[in-house]
Amino acid sequence: DGVVVSEEVKSHNLDVEIPESEFEAEEKGAEEEHTREPDSNILDVSSDYPRGKHISIQRYLADLEKLADLREDERKPCPLCPEEKFKACYSHKLHRHLQNLHWKVSVEFEGYRMCICHLACRPVKPNLVGDQTLSKMGAHYHCIICSATIVRRTDMIGHINRHVNKGESESRFATVRAPKSSCEVVKESATDVQVLPNHSTPQKTDSYFNPKMKVNRQLIFCALAVLAGERKPIECLDAFGATGIMGLQWAKHLRSSVKVTINDCNENSVTMIKENCHLNKMKVKLNIKEEDNDETVGNGEENSDTIEVTKMDANVIMHLRSFDFIHLDPFGTSVNYLDSAFRNVRNLGIVSLTSTDISSLYAKAQHVALRHYGCNIVRTEYYKELAARTVIAAVTRAAARCNKGIEVLLAVALEHFVLVVVRVLRGPTPADDSAKKVRYLIHCQWCEERVFQKEVNMVEENPYQQLPCDCHGSMPGKTAVLLGPLWSGALFNTGFLRRMLLEAVQYGLDEAQPLLKTLVCEAECTTLKHFSTHSPSDENKQEECGVYIKTPNTSAESYLVHGKRKSEEVLRGAAKRQRAEHSAEHPPFYYNIHRHSIKGMNMPKLNKFLNYLSEAGYRVSRTHFDPMGVRTNAPLAQFKTVLMKYSTPTYVGAQAEGPVHLPGEIQVGEEVPAATEIKVEEAELEEDDKSGVAATVFTQSYPTHCAAH
């Protein structure tokens, strides 16, 4: 009188209690039938997932009735209830029982129904005895994804939703090694990669692929292409391969200039990387310890179309081998891999890292930033640049521990990531110079003025004196906070960015070109209308950490002259000439024009405001960190003065008291009749060649104009 289980259930080793007398016979039968082809209603199960779906999980009610083997002339027990709860009965009564008790209260997920089960799958507490207690406590649901048993239906729905949020949206018996037919092929930059259906969730998938990081991958490719132009061949490492998309793009476009190594510690990811290499007609050079039937290469044409795939921990491979270019893109923070990255990286090599722990870097989880980066930060108007300087400070300290210094080539902070690219300078002197640029920042919480703390060893009596504002004297209490330690040096190298832009144009990377143009303008602290694709004609040389790069105006190619053996006097002289030619490095941080707008006044257009600041004698540029941000060396008081001068009142009656404009700029026209609407159209007419008088009709809807910028 045990539970009746059909042949389909036996062949898949289902979780059903079977009497001991029948267990051995069924076990042998299961081994024999395991080699047969599975039934169409039950999916195949690999060795990684030895158990199939429970009998309470079915697609249709008819499948559930098949388990009962309904016959009109015989009594049959319910396959989901013990004999004590539901005795054997005829087919019409058993059909109503299955439909009303099990099927109607089921939980649906991806075409399957998880019916309620009354079998002794779930242990009952020992102090509760009796048939009534057993019937109450024994009812449960079997999760289709994991092996959990849930009592309440609402809890089961919440349990399934948590699986979906984690990316486990496939059934436990269906997400074995995904067949090739279920893999999606994604194409990016002439490179094809296979990804799993849940590729967008990094916590659980083995092939994480984020299409939103395309700009990130293009920037890293441009940096590698610039390095490949300096010396060939270079050994580069993608420490966290996932699908291998980044390493494949390197090898496919740069060819013999690079020796690509793609690493990942996950076995399924390594298998996926190898398949993607063959998909892109690339040969796979296996790790020395691995012995497989994949293609191996000889010593002849090893660099042209060959990618080395390794399965190691990222720290291990960076400790064992030396590389010219290392890219770190872990899930979350990358501080755990910085020490090993700088241990064996070659001199004048490049280390790039992508940090995606933006909740801590953008000051939403300040305690996590203190734990990971040892840095105290708060939410400010310049929080994205604060995040970039926080990461660079951690990079600087890790490099200094290995007696290496850094020069920041590129720092980008966008919505989803923070990208930092640095060049490595070997030696204690560069390490000391870089470590001195890690300083604390004094930030006023009233007006958001900020200044880096002076490099002094003695304790200063009144650190508020370093701030340009007088909030401490006019406001009660403590008005400023100490943030950091942060990187206080430059965030960009103009010469390197220009060569990256040339590489982006050469390889047709359209998404990265506008961002690189903005970065070049930001590095030079100039507006986009003064942007030129060539270096200044008077001085074509760009100095990067003792390495001189000459970029001719007539050619996109650049060559490198190593300056390692040159004397320090020559280096200092070249640095002085460059400073005289390109002025000082870009000012730190930026101001948000909306944050400092005057109440009751309409701001000017952003590009016009940049011109006003430039005419006032200040260096000014836009910034990629904030679309409404202004990077300038003007103090906040002067910034607000210029903003106030060129703002217009929101109400019409006060336009007679409008701002005084500089000669040659727009002038206030006739008064617009008062109306209930605040918006007034603004259209600027070109200057008349004969009279030299400009006429304008004003509007006041500045959010529309700001969005246009």
Automatic annotation (TrEMBL):
Superkingdom classification of source: Eukaryota
Bias-annotated ranges (Basic and acidic residues): 26-39
Classification via Gene3D superfamilies: N2,N2-dimethylguanosine tRNA methyltransferase, C-terminal domain, Vaccinia Virus protein VP39
Catalysed reaction, written as an equation: guanosine(27) in tRNA(Tyr) + 2 S-adenosyl-L-methionine = N(2)-dimethylguanosine(27) in tRNA(Tyr) + 2 S-adenosyl-L-homocysteine + 2 H(+)
Biological-process GO terms, alphabetical: tRNA N2-guanine methylation
Compartments reported by the entry: Nucleus, Nucleolus
GO molecular function: tRNA (guanine) methyltransferase activity; tRNA binding; zinc ion binding
Positions of the C2H2-type domain: 143-163
Gene Ontology CC terms, in alphabetical order: nucleolus
InterPro entries (alphabetical): SAM-dependent_MTases_sf (IPR029063), Trm1 (IPR002905), tRNA_met_Trm1_C (IPR042296), Znf_C2H2_type (IPR013087)
Record keywords, A-Z: Isopeptide bond, Metal-binding, Methyltransferase, Nucleus, Phosphoprotein, RNA-binding, S-adenosyl-L-methionine, Transferase, tRNA processing, tRNA-binding, Ubl conjugation, Zinc, Zinc-finger
Pfam families: TRM
PROSITE patterns per record: SAM_MT_TRM1, ZINC_FINGER_C2H2_1
Region (Disordered): 1-41
Sequence similarity: Belongs to the class I-like SAM-binding methyltransferase superfamily. Trm1 family.
Name this polypeptide is given: tRNA (guanine(27)-N(2))-dimethyltransferase
Gene from which this protein is expressed: Trmt1l
